[in-house]
């Protein structure tokens, strides 16, 4: 099986969905992320603590959710250095079930093209349970060709 050709600026169309992914975040993912990031807040692994502070359950780290969404962009473009900026707002929590985890859907759409600088703004939509969990999520990418 051959690898897909890297996308080019000339091949982009405004409004085009260029990448999609369905992901599942597990409690094990939360533990690994906590260790890697140093964010060991117990709301990310302890049901009793999450309930005690009024949360609907154990929550995924916002930065983990944002990072997973950005990885979909990087996988599509094939070069992480092409991403020149990335921004998001955390709008809703992602509750991670102890058994089933949390399903995320990521969609990446071309929102703006600048031919002079060969850059594109990609709007990234992340949903969980049919609701958007990250708001105003945008990746800016620069194309060599």
Structure report:
With 145 residues, the chain is α+β, with helices and mostly antiparallel strands. The chain has a domain at 16-25 and 61-142: Roll (Thiol Ester Dehydrase, Chain A), CATH 3.10.129.10. It is 23% helix and 35% strand. It has 3 helices and 6 strands. The longest helix has 16 residues, at 62-77. It is elongated, with a radius of gyration of 17 Å. It starts with 16 loop residues before the first strand and ends with a strand. The mean pLDDT is 95.
Attribute tags:
alpha+beta; six-stranded antiparallel sheet; 145 residues; single chain; Thiol Ester Dehydrase, Chain A
Summarize the structure.
With 145 residues, the protein is α+β, with helices and mostly antiparallel strands.
Explain the layout of strands and helices:
Blueprint: E1 17-25, H1 27-37, H2 47-52, H3 62-77, E2 83-90, E3 102-114, E4 119-128, E5 131-132, E6 134-142
Antiparallel strand pairs: 1-3, 2-6, 3-4, 4-5, 4-6
- The global form is elongated
How does the major sheet shape up? 6 strands, antiparallel
Low-confidence stretches: none
Q: How many beta-strand segments?
A: 6
Mean model confidence by pLDDT: 95
Helix content: 10-25%
CATH superfamily of the domain at 16-25 and 61-142: Hotdog Thioesterase
Radius of gyration: 17 Å
The top level CATH class name of the domain at 16-25 and 61-142 = Alpha Beta
| CATH architecture label of the domain at 16-25 and 61-142 | Roll
Structural class: alpha+beta
Q: If you consult CATH, what is the topology of the domain at 16-25 and 61-142?
A: Thiol Ester Dehydrase, Chain A
The N- and C-terminal alpha carbons lie at a distance of 24 Å
Q: Beta fraction of the residues?
A: 35-45%
SSE pattern, N- to C-terminal: EHHHEEEEE
How many helices? The count is: 3
């Amino acid at each position: 099986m051959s690898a897909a050709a890297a996308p080019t600026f000339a091949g982009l169309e405004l409004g085009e969905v260029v990448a999609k992914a369905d992901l599942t975040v597990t409690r094990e993912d939360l533990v690994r992320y906590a260790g890697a990031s140093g964010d060991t807040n117990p709301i990310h692994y302890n049901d009793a603590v999450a309930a005690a502070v009024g949360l609907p359950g154990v929550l995924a780290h916002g930065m983990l959710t944002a990072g997973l969404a950005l990885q979909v962009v990087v996988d599509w473009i094939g070069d992480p250095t092409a991403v020149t900026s990335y921004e998001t707002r955390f709008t809703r929590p992602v509750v991670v079930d102890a058994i089933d985890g949390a399903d995320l859907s990521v969609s990446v759409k071309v929102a703006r093209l600048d031919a002079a600088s060969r850059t594109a703004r990609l709007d990234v939509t992340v949903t969980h349970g049919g609701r958007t969990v990250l708001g105003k999520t945008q990746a800016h990418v620069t194309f060599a060709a």
